[in-house]
Amino acid sequence: MTQHLTISRRGFLAMAAASGGLAIGFPLGAAAQSAAGSGSPEVNAWVVIQPDDTVVVRVARIEMGQGTLAGLAQLVAEELDADWEKVTWEYPTPGQNAARERIWGAMGTYGSQGVRGSQTYMRQGGAAARAMLMQAAANRWGVDVGTLTVSKGVKSGPGGATLTYGQVADEAAKLDVPADVALKDPSTWTIAGQPVKRLDTADKLDGSRIYSIDVTLEGMLNAAVKQAPVMGGVIRSFDADAVAGMPGVVKVVQVNEGAVAVVADTFWRAQTALNALPIDWDLGENASFGMADLEAMLDDGLTAEDAFVGNQSGDVETALAEAAQVVEADYHYPWQHQATMEPMNATALVTDDRCTVWVATQNAEIDLAVAAETSGLEISQCDVNRINLGGGFGRRAAPPDYTAIAVRLAVEMKGTPVKAIWTREEDQLHGAYHPATKARLRGALDAEGNLTGLHLRISGQSILAGLLPFMLQDGMDPFVFQGLQADSTEGALGYTVPNLLIDHAMRNPPIRPGFWRGVNNNQKAFYLECFIDELAEAAGRDPLEFRRAMMADHPRHLAVLDKVADAIGWEAGAPEGRAFGLCQHMGYGSYVAAAAEVSVNGDTLTIHRIVAATDPGHVVNPQQVEAQIEGSFAYGLSAGLLSQVTMEGGRVQEENFDTYPIVSMWEMPAVESHLVPSGEFWGGVGEPTIFVATPAVVNAIYRATGRRLRDLPLAKHGIAI
């Protein structure tokens, strides 16, 4: 029996938010057939074959520079036996997805889910399309399909006859989709697994690539937005008449209780008028909150009784009480902003019976729900055109406040498209920030220098409590424990400690939390891996040997650690005047490690090189994985060395890149990547290696200088690169 999608706007929002990591088997047949039967060249939901033999792969995930687009197309082309030179792509919309009973599944691109969360059903889509195209050719020739062969989309049949995919696509689309299809063994891949050229490079190079901020529609107006400078602040009043006569101004609109926008013929005119608009703010109770308040809040959590337990075994308190030596240290990780190169923006057009949005988003299904909610229309009356992202890093996953603002303005200007753009300052001051946390770690060492007990207390903010409270589990945020779970395909602890307690005292300051590339794995790797080095020193043992002793039951963690240690020359030792540092972690299904080589001259740090190893199970495009490693190191080192978000008077202080710097190209170390896929599983590559860059560098700094740095970024300690 076919189940039709009947769900409220709010229900759709919840479903879309919760389903990003869910991998299920989607139907390849009936829903796809309905479109194909009308003469469309669609073979199934994933594959369109055009008469000129162009293969269009439908990609449900979004491209934001990480290479998901090409990777997924490679997997489909591999199963299809297509000619890569004739492969292109298109995005289905969330409205189309809803109308076809979510035939394309979850559209969210986050949590390093782009390839690993889609690979099974996309490969099945390619394999099913191949079977249908082969059967169509066999039917035309009147032969058994088993007698045919195919290479690069050209089928060979009796007497040397050939047919291309384009010649039989319409016939194939009318066939029943096979219920069961065999997938190729990765060892036989010729397209997947290879560093083939990306599908989105040429138009970036020639400037024809359109990003959300570039969208231009006939008759379009532009809007500039100003939100309350303090979270929770509201507008008391504003004087629209004061700017109504300025050039190009069309209307001043109160978007919500805490935001106002000026709509004009150009963005510059809208922003100029907005800057001149008199606004009286009620900043509310958060207007006095500052860094001293945050410190007190986090410090309170380090000793609080109210803590959620994420991982526990044995009796930690007894182990600490009976230890030959107890090592204790406190660490701190600050707020971070995603700082995408393309600031938040969206374009919307609302009529009496239709709402259409053009936006760069990591989860278009949530934007669809927000469009429906804001416009007052049904989901079936709304759609979202997905535009490639000029950076996402989690900010464009949630919340889609920029979409809500654009739709609200389009409702006000019904029948006229409106593009709402946030300035860099507006973007920086109204983000969804990586949580600030502290950690207190206590380790018990026996007389032989073995770790017999470990208590890791985390104090700080919960992303789910701030954004998606319905996903809390009896009040606990399980995401807090990323990378520290006892047994998790997403992020398992890589050490065996007989007595262990990892818990979280939730402390939520008045700033909106959000997903930031790598999310909670970043601070957990920093806390644990730097403390492991402290324990090794206290035990009088080599940091690599100390780790290895606890990793016998964690062979994949150990394999990547051994790889970087060998590649950097750990056993031989660092060159004179330099030092090595190590780190390993698991997150988003992948095992990663890094080894850094540094030197320190006074307060000047030079990172000469970082060696990385990653085991994501399978590698679809090795060049793209290497690029992701390099990019994640740049992003991670920016946070670890240079940038942080601070607050005084309830206001974020860092308004632009002059106060929120990122690593420059000339500051980047040489990166040496080692891909060691072990098979049997699928892990992510977009985020995992970000975890290990900073801890490896911090550990190397200590070995070079004897200086323990437990509070990021390093710039606050006077260290420059």
Structure description:
By secondary structure, this protein is of the alpha+beta class. Helix 1 (9-18) runs antiparallel to helix 11. It is globular and about 80 Å long. It has 19 helices and 27 strands. Residues 1-9, 17-27 and 29-39 have low confidence and may be disordered. It has three domains: 9-205, Aldehyde oxidase/xanthine dehydrogenase, molybdopterin binding domain (Aldehyde Oxidoreductase, domain 4, 2-Layer Sandwich), CATH 3.30.365.10; 212-284 and 344-421, Aldehyde oxidase/xanthine dehydrogenase, molybdopterin binding domain (Aldehyde Oxidoreductase, domain 4, 2-Layer Sandwich), CATH 3.30.365; 291-336 and 433-717, 2-Layer Sandwich (Aldehyde Oxidoreductase, domain 4). A hairpin with a 2-residue loop joins strand 23 (590-601) and strand 24. The strands form seven sheets. Strands 10-11-8-18-15-16-17 form a seven-stranded mixed sheet.
Provide tags for this entry.
22% strand; Aldehyde Oxidoreductase, domain 4; alpha+beta; globular; 721 residues; seven-stranded mixed beta sheet
Please tell me what the overall shape is.
globular
| Record field, number of beta strands | 27
Going across the biggest sheet, name each strand in turn.
Answer: 10-11-8-18-15-16-17
Oligomer: single chain
Which consecutive residue ranges, at least 5 long each, have pLDDT under 50?
1-9, 17-27, 29-39
For this structure, what is the CATH class of the largest domain? Alpha Beta
Largest sheet: 7 strands, mixed
Radius of gyration: 27 Å
Terminal residue distance: 63 Å
Strand content of the residues, in percent?
A: 15-25%
Counting H and I runs of at least 4 residues, what is the number of helices? 19
